[in-house]
Amino acid sequence: MLRVLLADDEPASNEIIRHYITRHSLPLEVIQETFSGDDTIEAIKSLRPDLVFLDIQMPVFNGLMVMEEISQSYQGEVAFIVVTAYAYFEYAQKAIQLGARDLLLKPVLYDQFCDSLMRVLGYRYTDNPQFNALLEYIHSNYAEDLTLQKCADRLATTPNNIIRMFKQQLDTSLVQYCNTVKIKKACDELKKGVPIKEASEKVGFNNLNYFYRTFKKIMNATPKEFLNSLRAGG
Fold it and tell me: Is residue 96 very low, low, confident or very high in pLDDT (cuts 50, 70, 90)?
């Protein structure tokens, strides 16, 4: 379960996000709310959240100052989703330059909230809390050998139920979904300059030929062709 910090000096804004999480049984744990920039910095360093919903306009330090301070003095990884009123949208653009993963405009609507999480996490939450927990587990452990039995044991259910949920929710299979996640992560590694063989191993492929075949099937290009397209675009 992802640990979430809500940082906004308007309690109502925090309450909306908390309501979405609770009402839809999303696998997100709100560990604290903060209402000023200095408290937000302290909370990030002490509580180490995975995700921060960060307002731009806050007392003491604004959201941009919070992100600057965290980038300079924090040793962990944290994803920021900036939540702001339209009047401050120009500041939000600066937040993107500072590393914010996404922007949300107030008032935050549920569909926009889910779209933002999809862009940041790489997957969309469904209306099935059990399946949401499975998606989170897969995206956190994609490099492992995630068999049907292992996933079933994780959720205290049966392999047949895992098969059924994937078919009903995403019209795919566990293997196909896991391979897609792995290949997308491999693309991220290749973009960083990681060699092809090393990238395949980092995302959990033990057989390089199988990695090439799976990459070609999902990306409609070989890893070398993908790299060439990046160079051509650059």
Answer: confident
Token pair belonging to 2: 């992802």
Q: Is residue 202 scored above 90 in pLDDT?
A: yes
Contact at 8 Å (CB) between 35 and 59? yes
Beta bridge partners of 204: none
**CB environment 39-57: b (16+ within 10 A), e (fewer):** bbbebbeeeebbbbbbbbb
For 59-76, what is each residue's pLDDT tens digit?
Answer: 999 999 999 999 999 988
Q: Taking the CA of residue 45 as centre, how many other CA atoms within 13 Å lie in the half-sphere pointing to its CB?
A: 14
